[in-house]
Amino acid sequence: MELTGAEIVCESLLKEGADVVFGLPGGAVLPLYGALSSYPGVRHILVRHEQAAAMAADGYARATGKVGVCVATSGPGATNLVTGIAAAQMDSVPMVAITGQVPRPYIGRDAFQETDVTGVTLPITKHNMLVMDVKDVAQAIHDAFHIARTGRPGPVLVDIPRDVLLGKKTEFVWPTETKLPGYSIPGEAPEAQVAAAAGLINKAERPLIMAGHGVLISHAYGLMTEMAEKAQIPVITTLLGISSIPSDHELNLGMSGMHGMAYANLAINEADLIIGLGMRFDDRVTGRISDFAPNAKFVHVDIDASEIDKNVQTDVGLVGDLKAVLGQMLPKIEANVHIDWLRHIEEIKAQHPSHVVRESDELLPQYVLKRLTETTQGRGIVVTGVGQHQMWAAQHCKFTEPNTFITSGGLGTMGFEVPAALGAQVGLPDTTVWSVCGDGGFQMTMCDIATAVESGADVKFAILNNTNLGMVHQLQDVFFEKDFVASEFSANPDFVKIAEAYGIRGIRVTKKDEVGDAVQQAMETSGPVIIDFMVKEDEIVYPFIPSGQSVNEMLEEPA
After folding, report:
1. What distance in Å separates the CA atoms of residue 346 and residue 92, rounded to the nearest whole number?
2. What is the Cα 12 distance to its own chain's centre?
3. Helix, strand, coil in percent for the chain, rounding step 5
């Protein structure tokens, strides 16, 4: 059958199993929207800003394991996707962004709303392409999905001129293979390296597993937990590795790094072997590299060869699919107990109880999140933006299932919490999603509350409202002699009235004894709910390793 380029895009989306797209129409991409009306199998979610389209696609992808899809027009529509695309690239999220472009005869002539979006996004995509012939559209979409979801996942952008979408028709033939010379996907690691890694693990007296996002992406959490239990190795997670092992597992030491558990960081400092699984050893985890795990050897497993030895010099580096490599490694690992090491860690825990919320008559943000996770019993998905609320959620919320904590890690994107929560709930409509927000980040993307209302998304927005840019305020407090320039809000809106303006329920909480009831009310209310938690304004996130310093300079809560 002969189809237009726009119709071929729709057919290709269905072939790839992409039944949801997030987007905002505009002139250059309007032919695609004209075709969408004939394809009821592709649900379009209309966002209020293209930034939200990319972030919603991100949340959708992480919650479902599918490729998230976002659509925008040329020029400002395409550039508004950039932040969300960059966030997906940093966090290895499978995404396909489809953008309209000005007609081919106008490319390079500074036409209205022309932007070289492939040039703009070259550093922040796994791959991108400009499709100049309608005959190439199906192959381009097919290749884009293949690249996005395989190997180390990431975003792929497909830019299509308006006249390619709308011009002459061509026969639609679905590709049977990719045309990607040089693109290979690692599988198992060399057996000699696997044996060497297992040898180090079997000899170690104070080993630690550091679990990153790759454990979740590769669905290796079962094998990782089996390995940890077999050899009795404590597990520390990165921020994006949270939920790769149940929070209440006896071997789970919680998150490490700048605002990680003090006892987890101190254990790293004393370990004789670090087993890094699907993680990057980034600066927020390591602090000053020269002082990171000074007594340890390193085994590092990652699907991306460029990550091996990039930040930490490894003793054994294994390039391969983490689930496959753990399958190779597990039979070679000997059963062990490490009783002395585990007892020592319990002693460190007792001396540095980072997860304890101090007693206070004030409404502490840590208390809010502790009560939230108790009331929900850890069910559902928690999505956060970036800042203090993110770190408190990572420290105090509990998770029993994989992929139930979604946050912006590498790029640190404020405003991520609203659209990403929407995307996660659209992807898993039977799951309640909690969007844990800062009042600053919430205001960056709160226009897409309208999208949540229109789509009937069961998202509960928990705003930790301290009337300032919390993490900026904290850094100014600690390092800039309380010079609070441009970090305090004097005109925050009434978030309960914002909720009412969108026709949804709004709840304000000012006292500790109101928290549990507010959470319960939100859970019993169908559709979106906004809870405005008026928390202590000058609370600081502890523990706290200042940027570029080591665990020896860690600041713990004075109390």
Report:
1. 34
2. 27
3. 40, 15, 40
The alpha carbon of residue 157 and the mean position of all alpha carbons in its chain are separated, in whole angstroms, by 19
Closest among 186, 187, 153 to 65, alpha carbons compared: 153
What is the 3-state secondary structure of 218-268?
CCCHHHHHHHHHHHCCCEEECCCCCCCCCCCCCCEEEECCCCCCHHHHHHH
The CA distance from 445 to 408, in Å, is: 14
Cα separations in angstroms, 370 against 187, 374, 375, 499: 40, 6, 9, 24
- The pLDDT value given to residue 179: 87
Angle at 76 between CA 71 and CA 77, to 5 degrees: 10
Quick count: other Cβ atoms within 10 Å of Cβ 430?
Answer: 6
- Identify the bridge partners of residue 317 per DSSP, sorted by sequence position: 300
CA pair distance 531, 369, nearest whole angstrom: 12
| pLDDT tens figures, 500-541 | 999 999 999 999 999 999 999 999 999 999 999 999 999 999
Q: Take residue 163 and report the two structure tokens written for it.
A: 């006249």
Q: Mind giving me the DSSP string for 100-162?
A: EE--GGGTTTT-TT---HHHHHGGGSSEEEE--SGGGHHHHHHHHHHHHHSSS--EEEEEEEH
The answer to whether the CB of 448 falls within 8 A of the CB of 517 is no
- pLDDT tens digits along 427-458: 999 999 999 999 999 999 999 999 999 999 99
HSE of 326, CA atoms in CB hemisphere, 13 A: 25
Q: Which helix (H) or strand (E) holds 82?
A: helix 82-90
* Rounded Cα distance, 406 and 431, in Å: 14
pLDDT score for 539: 96
Number of other CB atoms surrounding residue 399 within 10 Å: 24
Of 161, 62, 49, 84, nearest to 115 by C-alpha is: 161
> What is the token pair recorded at 211?
């679990």
Could you give the 3-state DSSP secondary structure of residue 370? helix
Query: What three-state secondary structure class fits 359?
Result: coil
The CA distance from 387 to 414, in Å, is 8
Rounded Cα distance between 488 and 468, Å, is: 4
Token output for 333: 């690992």
DSSP characters for 300-313? EEES-GGGTTTSS-
Q: How far apart are CA 29 and CA 100, in angstroms?
A: 4
* Torsion angle, alpha carbons of 434, 435, 436, 441, to 10: 180
Q: How far apart are CA 418 and CA 414, in angstroms?
A: 10
263 pLDDT more than 80: yes
Tokens at 109, concatenated:
């002539």
